[in-house]
TrEMBL record, chains A, B:
Protein name: Metalloregulator ArsR/SmtB family transcription factor
Lineage of the organism: Bacteria, Pseudomonadati, Bacteroidota, Cytophagia, Cytophagales
Pfam families: HTH_20 (PF12840)
Residue stretches making up the HTH arsR-type domain: 1-94
Top-level taxon of origin: Bacteria
PANTHER family xrefs: TRANSCRIPTIONAL REGULATORY PROTEIN
Entries under PROSITE patterns matching the protein: HTH_ARSR_2
Length: 112, 112
DNA sequence: TAATTTTGCAACCATATGGTTTCTTTTTTA
DNA sequence: TAAAAAAGAAACCATATGGTTGCAAAATTA
Protein backbone atom coordinates (compact mmCIF):
# COMPACT_ATOMS: atom_id res chain seq x y z
CA UNK A 1 0.00 0.00 0.00
CA UNK A 2 1.97 2.96 -1.26
CA UNK A 3 1.44 6.24 0.56
CA UNK A 4 1.63 8.72 -2.30
CA UNK A 5 1.35 11.76 -0.09
CA UNK A 6 4.19 10.55 2.12
CA UNK A 7 6.32 9.67 -0.88
CA UNK A 8 5.83 13.14 -2.30
CA UNK A 9 6.90 14.98 0.79
CA UNK A 10 9.99 12.81 1.19
CA UNK A 11 10.80 13.58 -2.43
CA UNK A 12 10.11 17.29 -1.96
CA UNK A 13 12.63 17.68 0.84
CA UNK A 14 15.24 15.46 -0.81
CA UNK A 15 16.51 18.31 -2.96
CA UNK A 16 18.93 20.72 -1.23
CA UNK A 17 17.73 23.72 -3.22
CA UNK A 18 14.17 23.07 -2.11
CA UNK A 19 15.25 22.74 1.51
CA UNK A 20 17.03 26.05 1.15
CA UNK A 21 14.01 27.80 -0.36
CA UNK A 22 11.86 26.43 2.42
CA UNK A 23 14.34 27.49 5.06
CA UNK A 24 14.61 30.97 3.62
CA UNK A 25 10.84 31.35 3.84
CA UNK A 26 10.72 30.09 7.40
CA UNK A 27 13.35 32.63 8.41
CA UNK A 28 11.81 35.49 6.45
CA UNK A 29 9.74 37.72 8.62
CA UNK A 30 7.69 38.70 5.59
CA UNK A 31 6.42 36.76 2.60
CA UNK A 32 8.63 36.71 -0.46
CA UNK A 33 7.69 36.96 -4.09
CA UNK A 34 8.96 34.46 -6.63
CA UNK A 35 11.52 36.96 -7.91
CA UNK A 36 12.73 37.80 -4.43
CA UNK A 37 13.33 34.12 -3.77
CA UNK A 38 14.99 33.53 -7.11
CA UNK A 39 17.37 36.45 -6.56
CA UNK A 40 19.09 34.48 -3.81
CA UNK A 41 19.95 31.51 -6.01
CA UNK A 42 22.49 31.05 -8.76
CA UNK A 43 19.94 29.52 -11.10
CA UNK A 44 17.18 30.87 -13.29
CA UNK A 45 13.84 32.10 -12.03
CA UNK A 46 12.16 29.28 -13.93
CA UNK A 47 14.16 26.65 -12.08
CA UNK A 48 13.09 28.22 -8.78
CA UNK A 49 9.48 28.40 -9.94
CA UNK A 50 9.55 24.65 -10.55
CA UNK A 51 10.94 23.98 -7.08
CA UNK A 52 8.31 26.24 -5.55
CA UNK A 53 5.58 24.35 -7.39
CA UNK A 54 6.81 21.06 -5.93
CA UNK A 55 6.93 22.54 -2.42
CA UNK A 56 3.48 24.04 -2.93
CA UNK A 57 2.08 20.70 -4.12
CA UNK A 58 3.01 19.02 -0.83
CA UNK A 59 1.80 21.98 1.23
CA UNK A 60 5.17 23.21 2.46
CA UNK A 61 4.60 26.54 0.76
CA UNK A 62 1.41 28.57 0.57
CA UNK A 63 1.04 31.10 -2.21
CA UNK A 64 -1.05 34.25 -2.08
CA UNK A 65 -1.36 36.14 -5.35
CA UNK A 66 -1.33 39.89 -5.06
CA UNK A 67 -1.48 41.85 -8.26
CA UNK A 68 1.15 40.58 -10.62
CA UNK A 69 3.15 39.08 -7.79
CA UNK A 70 2.72 35.83 -5.90
CA UNK A 71 3.78 35.87 -2.29
CA UNK A 72 5.16 32.69 -0.77
CA UNK A 73 4.85 31.59 2.84
CA UNK A 74 6.45 28.57 4.46
CA UNK A 75 4.09 26.14 6.13
CA UNK A 76 6.05 23.53 8.11
CA UNK A 77 2.97 21.52 9.16
CA UNK A 78 3.39 18.81 6.51
CA UNK A 79 6.80 18.04 8.04
CA UNK A 80 4.95 16.20 10.76
CA UNK A 81 4.86 13.29 8.32
CA UNK A 82 8.66 13.17 8.27
CA UNK A 83 8.78 13.71 12.00
CA UNK A 84 6.50 10.77 12.70
CA UNK A 85 8.45 8.53 10.36
CA UNK A 86 11.82 9.34 11.86
CA UNK A 87 10.67 9.21 15.49
CA UNK A 88 9.74 5.59 15.08
CA UNK A 89 13.43 4.76 14.85
CA UNK A 90 14.61 7.12 17.57
CA UNK A 91 14.96 4.49 20.29
CA UNK A 92 17.56 2.73 18.19
CA UNK A 93 20.06 5.55 17.83
CA UNK A 94 19.29 6.72 21.36
CA UNK A 95 20.38 3.33 22.66
CA UNK A 96 23.47 3.56 20.52
CA UNK A 97 22.72 -0.08 20.13
CA UNK A 98 21.72 -1.95 17.06
CA UNK A 99 21.59 -5.44 15.75
CA UNK A 100 25.10 -5.30 14.34
CA UNK A 101 26.57 -4.12 17.65
CA UNK A 102 24.80 -6.91 19.48
CA UNK A 103 26.03 -9.39 16.95
CA UNK A 104 29.64 -8.25 17.18
CA UNK A 105 29.56 -8.23 20.98
CA UNK A 106 28.14 -11.73 21.05
CA UNK A 107 30.77 -12.79 18.56
CA UNK A 108 33.60 -11.43 20.72
CA UNK A 109 32.27 -13.06 23.84
CA UNK A 110 32.33 -16.42 22.12
CA UNK A 111 35.77 -15.69 20.79
CA UNK A 112 35.19 -16.96 17.25
CA UNK B 1 28.26 25.43 1.73
CA UNK B 2 26.65 22.21 0.62
CA UNK B 3 26.46 19.40 3.17
CA UNK B 4 27.06 16.37 0.96
CA UNK B 5 26.54 13.86 3.74
CA UNK B 6 23.22 15.41 4.65
CA UNK B 7 22.16 15.58 1.02
CA UNK B 8 22.94 11.90 0.58
CA UNK B 9 20.90 10.71 3.51
CA UNK B 10 17.91 12.81 2.46
CA UNK B 11 18.24 11.27 -0.97
CA UNK B 12 18.63 7.76 0.46
CA UNK B 13 15.35 7.88 2.35
CA UNK B 14 13.47 9.61 -0.46
CA UNK B 15 12.85 6.34 -2.25
CA UNK B 16 9.92 4.29 -0.90
CA UNK B 17 11.57 0.97 -1.74
CA UNK B 18 14.64 1.95 0.27
CA UNK B 19 12.50 3.01 3.22
CA UNK B 20 10.79 -0.36 3.02
CA UNK B 21 14.07 -2.28 2.92
CA UNK B 22 15.30 -0.30 5.88
CA UNK B 23 12.09 -0.86 7.79
CA UNK B 24 12.17 -4.58 7.09
CA UNK B 25 15.65 -4.77 8.55
CA UNK B 26 14.71 -2.79 11.63
CA UNK B 27 11.80 -5.12 12.27
CA UNK B 28 13.78 -8.28 11.54
CA UNK B 29 15.00 -9.93 14.69
CA UNK B 30 17.84 -11.44 12.69
CA UNK B 31 20.05 -10.17 9.92
CA UNK B 32 18.91 -10.83 6.39
CA UNK B 33 20.92 -11.79 3.35
CA UNK B 34 20.57 -9.94 0.07
CA UNK B 35 18.47 -12.73 -1.37
CA UNK B 36 16.21 -12.87 1.65
CA UNK B 37 15.55 -9.17 1.30
CA UNK B 38 15.05 -9.33 -2.45
CA UNK B 39 12.51 -12.14 -2.07
CA UNK B 40 10.09 -9.71 -0.45
CA UNK B 41 10.06 -7.31 -3.38
CA UNK B 42 8.51 -7.53 -6.83
CA UNK B 43 11.70 -6.43 -8.53
CA UNK B 44 14.97 -8.11 -9.39
CA UNK B 45 17.73 -8.96 -6.94
CA UNK B 46 20.01 -6.55 -8.75
CA UNK B 47 17.62 -3.65 -8.22
CA UNK B 48 17.55 -4.45 -4.51
CA UNK B 49 21.34 -4.74 -4.43
CA UNK B 50 21.58 -1.21 -5.80
CA UNK B 51 19.20 0.12 -3.16
CA UNK B 52 21.15 -1.67 -0.44
CA UNK B 53 24.37 -0.10 -1.69
CA UNK B 54 22.86 3.37 -1.41
CA UNK B 55 21.62 2.65 2.12
CA UNK B 56 25.00 1.20 3.04
CA UNK B 57 26.81 4.26 1.67
CA UNK B 58 24.96 6.56 4.08
CA UNK B 59 25.38 4.14 6.98
CA UNK B 60 21.75 3.09 7.32
CA UNK B 61 22.72 -0.51 6.63
CA UNK B 62 25.73 -2.43 7.87
CA UNK B 63 26.85 -5.48 5.95
CA UNK B 64 28.68 -8.47 7.36
CA UNK B 65 29.92 -10.97 4.80
CA UNK B 66 29.68 -14.57 5.85
CA UNK B 67 30.74 -17.17 3.36
CA UNK B 68 29.01 -16.56 0.09
CA UNK B 69 26.32 -14.51 1.78
CA UNK B 70 26.23 -10.92 2.99
CA UNK B 71 24.11 -10.23 6.01
CA UNK B 72 22.46 -6.85 6.33
CA UNK B 73 21.68 -5.00 9.55
CA UNK B 74 19.74 -1.78 9.91
CA UNK B 75 21.53 1.04 11.68
CA UNK B 76 19.16 3.94 12.35
CA UNK B 77 21.80 6.22 13.88
CA UNK B 78 22.32 8.30 10.72
CA UNK B 79 18.64 9.25 10.90
CA UNK B 80 19.61 11.69 13.62
CA UNK B 81 20.56 14.02 10.78
CA UNK B 82 16.96 14.00 9.52
CA UNK B 83 15.66 14.25 13.05
CA UNK B 84 17.73 17.35 13.79
CA UNK B 85 16.68 18.98 10.54
CA UNK B 86 12.98 18.39 11.06
CA UNK B 87 12.95 19.32 14.76
CA UNK B 88 14.08 22.80 13.89
CA UNK B 89 10.67 23.42 12.36
CA UNK B 90 8.63 21.65 15.02
CA UNK B 91 7.55 24.79 16.87
CA UNK B 92 5.76 25.95 13.76
CA UNK B 93 3.44 23.04 13.23
CA UNK B 94 3.03 22.68 17.02
CA UNK B 95 1.75 26.24 17.18
CA UNK B 96 -0.56 25.49 14.27
CA UNK B 97 0.45 29.00 13.39
CA UNK B 98 2.43 30.18 10.47
CA UNK B 99 3.10 33.33 8.54
CA UNK B 100 0.19 32.78 6.20
CA UNK B 101 -2.24 32.31 9.06
CA UNK B 102 -1.00 35.48 10.71
CA UNK B 103 -1.30 37.32 7.45
CA UNK B 104 -4.86 36.18 6.81
CA UNK B 105 -5.92 36.97 10.38
CA UNK B 106 -4.42 40.43 10.12
CA UNK B 107 -6.12 40.90 6.77
CA UNK B 108 -9.53 39.98 8.20
CA UNK B 109 -9.11 42.29 11.16
CA UNK B 110 -8.49 45.17 8.82
CA UNK B 111 -11.37 44.08 6.66
CA UNK B 112 -9.69 44.54 3.30
C1' DT C 1 -1.26 54.59 -23.75
C1' DA C 2 3.45 52.81 -23.94
C1' DA C 3 7.03 50.72 -21.47
C1' DT C 4 8.29 47.84 -17.68
C1' DT C 5 7.81 44.25 -14.35
C1' DT C 6 6.33 39.75 -12.71
C1' DT C 7 5.02 35.65 -13.82
C1' DG C 8 3.48 31.50 -16.55
C1' DC C 9 3.91 28.34 -20.41
C1' DA C 10 6.27 25.35 -23.44
C1' DA C 11 9.95 23.30 -25.68
C1' DC C 12 14.14 21.55 -25.10
C1' DC C 13 18.46 19.27 -23.02
C1' DA C 14 21.89 16.52 -20.24
C1' DT C 15 22.24 13.65 -16.61
C1' DA C 16 20.47 10.92 -12.72
C1' DT C 17 17.63 7.31 -11.36
C1' DG C 18 15.50 2.94 -10.96
C1' DG C 19 14.98 -0.79 -13.29
C1' DT C 20 16.36 -4.89 -16.49
C1' DT C 21 19.28 -8.87 -18.37
C1' DT C 22 23.39 -11.59 -18.98
C1' DC C 23 27.54 -13.35 -17.43
C1' DT C 24 31.27 -14.34 -14.03
C1' DT C 25 33.17 -15.39 -9.51
C1' DT C 26 33.07 -17.40 -5.10
C1' DT C 27 31.40 -20.57 -1.79
C1' DT C 28 28.70 -24.38 -0.34
C1' DT C 29 26.51 -28.81 -0.92
C1' DA C 30 25.49 -33.26 -3.05
C1' DT D 1 34.68 -33.00 -7.96
C1' DA D 2 30.43 -31.47 -10.17
C1' DA D 3 26.30 -28.90 -9.46
C1' DA D 4 23.92 -25.35 -7.19
C1' DA D 5 23.50 -21.05 -4.70
C1' DA D 6 24.72 -16.20 -3.52
C1' DA D 7 26.30 -12.29 -4.97
C1' DG D 8 28.92 -8.84 -7.96
C1' DA D 9 29.92 -6.56 -12.49
C1' DA D 10 28.64 -4.55 -16.57
C1' DA D 11 25.87 -3.18 -20.26
C1' DC D 12 21.75 -1.46 -21.34
C1' DC D 13 17.07 1.08 -21.22
C1' DA D 14 13.08 4.26 -20.27
C1' DT D 15 11.72 7.84 -17.64
C1' DA D 16 12.34 11.36 -14.06
C1' DT D 17 14.74 15.27 -12.68
C1' DG D 18 16.79 19.70 -12.60
C1' DG D 19 18.15 22.85 -15.39
C1' DT D 20 17.94 26.10 -19.68
C1' DT D 21 15.88 29.54 -23.15
C1' DG D 22 12.35 32.14 -25.61
C1' DC D 23 8.00 34.02 -25.73
C1' DA D 24 3.28 35.44 -24.18
C1' DA D 25 0.10 37.41 -20.75
C1' DA D 26 -1.27 40.21 -17.05
C1' DA D 27 -0.52 44.01 -13.93
C1' DT D 28 1.87 48.23 -12.79
C1' DT D 29 4.19 52.51 -13.63
C1' DA D 30 5.75 56.46 -16.28
Amino acid sequence: MPNKKRDNIFRAIADPTRREIFHMLVLASAALSINEIADHFPMSRQAITKHIKILNDVGLIDIVPKGRERYCYADPKPLKEIHDWVMYYEKFWENKLNLLDSYLKEKNKKGN
